[in-house]
Write a structure and sequence with these properties.
34% strand; Aminopeptidase; globular; alpha+beta; 7-stranded mixed beta sheet
């Protein structure tokens, strides 16, 4: 499995996303292209998934801009739009993607939010801890934090 930086060719990532996620990020990507990196997880023949590492407030966090900025000010990077191909889920690929991100950014701390509480177990297994609950238009999101082992 390889981690590929596809920031210069973002369509490689957008093409694998669910339509609603693609619509959320594709039309405004130009605002983030200089401050974020897109990483794909590939095997010998297929793109299996990917995600974006943000160093500024991402489009999905505009509702909590001050909260997001506070984490950036503490030296954390935001992981967003993490996606694994639906036909390849439950194969540990999300964990592999995260491990490769940790290797790409040694000694870096990360944060992310989830809308599906069922995902909390996956992220805890991968070193994240629950930090707080946020409210986005009457929907709950959970903010999780990964403190790298320095």
């Amino acid at each position: 499995m390889n981690l590929i930086d596809t920031t210069a060719a973002p369509t490689n990532f957008f093409d694998i996303l669910a339509q609603d996620w693609r619509e959320d990020i594709e039309s405004i990507w130009h605002k983030y292209a200089q401050s974020a990196k897109i990483y794909l997880l590939n095997d010998e023949k297929d793109t299996l998934g990917g995600g974006i590492v943000f160093s500024t407030v991402s489009p999905d966090m505009e509702y909590a801009k001050d909260e997001a900025q506070a984490w950036f000010d503490k030296g954390y990077l935001y992981l967003g739009f993490i996606w694994i191909a639906e036909n390849r889920r439950s194969e540990g690929l999300g964990s592999i993607w995260l491990k490769k991100i940790y290797e790409q950014y040694p000694s870096t701390k990360f944060w992310l939010t989830i809308e599906d509480l069922d995902l909390i177990h996956f992220y805890k297994k991968n070193g994240f801890r629950f930090e707080k609950k946020l409210i986005n238009n009457n929907n709950e999101e959970w903010l999780l934090v990964y403190d790298s082992e320095v």
